[in-house]
Design brief:
Structural class: alpha/beta
CATH topology of the largest domain: TIM Barrel
Distance between the termini: 46 Å
Radius of gyration: 19 Å
CATH architecture of the largest domain: Alpha-Beta Barrel
Number of domains: 2
CATH superfamily of the largest domain: Aldolase class I
Number of helices: 13
Order of helices and strands: EEHEHEHEHHEHEHEHEHHHHH
Strand content: 15-25%
Largest sheet: 7 strands, parallel
Strand order of the largest sheet: 3-4-5-6-7-8-9
């Protein structure tokens, strides 16, 4: 397991490690990013998607959208979502001009709203488009890293081979794969890691990070044992346990992780810090409760305490 080693891209730039936070729409933003950065719980950032629809956003819009990530001083993978290959390619070049490490193409989002527009996971139904778009993004970026986030298939795992063939021909610098199909959303999947193993083998030597249901150090170890992933990108696991990436890094060093585990009271204090940094607007309160609901459960005393404090 070489997850502590940098992932060096073809242009010589590198991710500092192969243990990265997965992007979460509506969560990986603002005070969440600021606090995780301040506590040194991550060593890079993977942004939620920026939707590209009718044109290439101005630099000022990209700067505003990426402000908490660029201000962190850490390596940033900036993610794009859309259906127009040329606009995505031009947007990738513009993002690279801001100093992001890598630009990612979202072919994974299962949101009904995103799917209805033909974006996100819906693009898995168009493998040729995936290949053409990745190649266009690479050409526009002049050798700077381009990656893709995908799910194993849209509906049927049998789609995997055609998807993998298209990605392999485009040869991105990194593939991050969630083991569910788009239509499975977040349903339990008993053979998820085996699916990752198959996708990994189909993609050959393209660096391959796994995602999906990584909530503990043991989950990370099992994913590696089965799928031999080159790295991992936990997402919802960070909402349940903010120390997760640090625990995984410590495990990779061969050190015990028990002393890093947070008590419920410590998690509550962590959320209270996010609340203090976020402000008192209704939007920020909803944001805080969204994390707390995942972290503790809606029926927990900690969640009820936080609801009382916000009210």
């Amino acid at each position: 397991m070489n997850w502590l080693e940098p992932l060096v891209f073809s242009n010589g730039s590198a991710l500092p490690s192969r243990i990265i936070p997965g992007p979460m729409e509506g969560v990986t933003e603002g005070s969440f990013v600021e606090l995780f950065t301040a506590l040194q719980l991550v060593d890079s950032w993977f942004t939620p998607f920026i939707r590209i629809s009718s044109g290439v956003p101005r630099l000022s819009r990209f700067k505003a959208r990426l402000s908490p990530f660029l201000s962190s001083g850490l390596s940033v993978i900036a993610q794009l979502l859309g259906t127009d290959s040329e606009l995505l390619a031009q947007s990738a070049a513009r993002l690279h001009s801001l100093g992001v490490l890598c630009v990612d193409l979202n072919c994974a989002c299962p949101s009904p709203q995103v799917l209805s527009s033909g974006g996100g996971g819906k693009r898995l139904l168009h493998p040729q488009w995936i290949k053409d778009t990745l190649l266009a993004m690479k050409a526009a970026s002049n050798g700077r890293p381009i990656s893709i986030k995908l799910r194993c298939a849209y509906k049927d795992i049998a789609e995997m081979e055609e998807i993998a063939a298209a990605v392999r021909e485009a040869s991105p610098d990194l593939v991050t794969c969630h083991f569910r199909t788009v239509q499975e959303m977040y349903e339990p999947v008993p053979d998820g890691y085996e699916r990752l193993a198959k996708m990994h083998s189909l993609l050959g030597d393209i660096p391959f990070f796994g995602s999906g249901d990584i909530f503990t150090v043991q989950d990370a170890i099992r994913m590696y044992d089965i799928a031999q992933v080159d790295g991992i990108a936990p997402a919802r696991g960070l909402m349940k346990n903010p120390m997760l990436l640090r625990e995984i890094r410590t495990m990779c060093q061969g050190l015990p992780t028990e002393q890093l585990q947070m008590s419920n009271q410590e998690k509550l204090q962590f959320l209270q810090k996010i609340g203090q940094m976020s402000g008192q607007s209704k939007r920020h309160q909803v944001f805080l409760l969204k994390i707390a609901r995942t972290m503790f459960g809606e029926d927990s005393p900690e969640f009820r305490q936080l609801v009382t404090e916000i009210q």
